[in-house]
Amino acid sequence: MKQRDQWSSKIGFVLAAAGSAIGLGAIWKFPYMTGTNGGSVFLLLFIICTIAIGLPILLAEFVIGRMGQADAVTSLKRLAQGRNWQFIGWMGLTASFIILSFYSVVGGWILSYLARSLIFKLDTVNHGELFNSIIASPVEVLLGQAVFMLLTVWIVQSGVQSGIERASRWMMPLLFIFFIILAIRSLTLEGAMDGVRFLFVPDWSYLTGSTVLVALGQAFFSLSVGVTAMMTYASYLPKEERLGQSAVNVSILNIVISVLAGLVIFPAVFALGQSPEEGPGLIFVILPAIFNQIPFGNVFMIIFFVLMLFATLTSSIAMLEIVVSTGIREKRNRRKLAAWVFGLLIFIVGIPSALSFGILSDVNLFGGTIFDFADTITSRIMMPLGALLTSIFVGFVLTKKQTDEELRMHPVMNALWRFLVRFVVPIAIIFIFATWIFELRG
C-alpha cells in the first residue's frame, strides 16, 4: 500500500480541521441563532453542548480516520472486518456533495457583496432590496457560485500539504486577526456595552426546553461532524500525534470564533439601535447597514466579507476533499483530475439551488425551495444520522482496547469519552430527531 499523504505538522492539521468546522455555521448562523434565543443563555448552553456532545463525536471521527489511514469508506471497511459499515462513509460523501452544492451558492453571495464593497456600491442602497435582487439574479448567482467553486477546486487539487494545509495556515490566522479588529471596532461604538451584556449576562427566562434543543443542534452542526470530514482529515495524521488534544483544540477554536462573531455583531447592533432578532438576514442585510453608519465603514465592510469568504472556503475545502479522497483512494496522480471533475459536477447539481430564489422560486419541495430542501435533508437527516451511526460503530463495534490504544489518554478520560460516545451522544441525537419529527407532526 502506498504511503498516505500526511499533514506536515500538528498545527497544520488543527488549523485545517478547525477551518472545516468554522464556516457559515459560526459566523452566519451562530449570531442570528443567539439573537433569536436569548443571547447569553443560548451561548452558555451552546458551550456546554459543544463540550459534552460535539467533542466526543469529533474524537470518534478522528479515531476512525487515523486507525483506517484512508478515505472514510475504506477506513470503515477495514475496521469493520467484513461487516457492512462502510455505508456511513458513502452517506457522508453524499451529504458533503449535496451540502457543497448549495453551500457554494452562499459563497457566491459573499463574493457578490465583497465585489460591491470593493467598488463602494454598498453605501447608498436599501440592503434588504439589494439582497433580494442578488439572490434572484440568475447571472449573478451562477457566476458567483462558479467563481467560488473554482477557488475551492484550485486549493484542493494541489493536495494535502501544498493545497489544504497551506491555505489553512494563511486563512485561519487571518480569520482571527480580522475578527479581533472588527470586534475592537464594534466594542468602541457608543452603546456597545448593551450588546456585551446581551451576550454575557444571563436572562434565565430564556432557559427553556426549546432553547436547549436549538443550542444542542447548533453545537452539533458547528463542529462539522456527521459528514466524515473529520475522518478524512484525521487519516492524514501521523500515528504519534495525540488525538484528544487535537479534538479539544478544534472545539475550543470553534467556540472562540463563535464568541468573537458575537462580539463583532451584537455590540454594533445594540449601539446603532437595531434588533438582535433579525434572523438570517443579520449578516447580509443588517451588518452592511451598520457599517454605513460608522467612520471608515466601507473599509470594515471589506474586511468583514473577506473574513466571511475565508471562513466559507475552509469549510468548502473539507467537503470537496471528502469526495476527492474517496474518488482517488491512494492514487495521488488522479487528484487534480478528480478535483476538477467533482467540482464541475457539484456546480451543476447546485444550479437548481442557486436559481431557487429567482426563476425556480415557484418550485416547492416539502414546503420550501430547492435550496431549503437540500439544506433540510443534509443538516436535519443525513448529518445527525451519520453521527449517530458513527457513535454506535465506535462505541460498540470497535473494542475498548482498540480505541484506548488509538487515543492514548489517561484511563479515566478514556472511560469518560467511551461512556459519552456509547450513551450520551446517541441519546442526544435521537432526542433531536424525535423532537423534530414531533414538531413536523404538530
TrEMBL record:
Query: How does this chain sit within the bilayer?
Result: Multi-pass membrane protein
Q: Which SUPFAM superfamilies match?
A: SNF-like (SSF161070)
**Protease listed as a keyword:** no
- Which keywords are on file for this protein? Membrane, Transmembrane, Transmembrane helix, Transport
Where does the chain cross the membrane?
Answer: 12-30, 42-64, 85-110, 130-156, 168-187, 207-236, 248-272, 299-325, 337-361, 381-398, 419-438
Give the chief site where it resides. membrane
* Keyword Transport carried by entry: yes
Where found in the cell?
Answer: Membrane
- CDD domains this protein is in? SLC6sbd_Tyt1-Like (cd10336)
What the entry lists under NCBIfam families is as follows:
Na_transp
**What's the protein name?**
Sodium-dependent transporter
In the record, what lineage is assigned to the organism producing the protein?
Bacteria, Bacillati, Bacillota, Bacilli, Bacillales
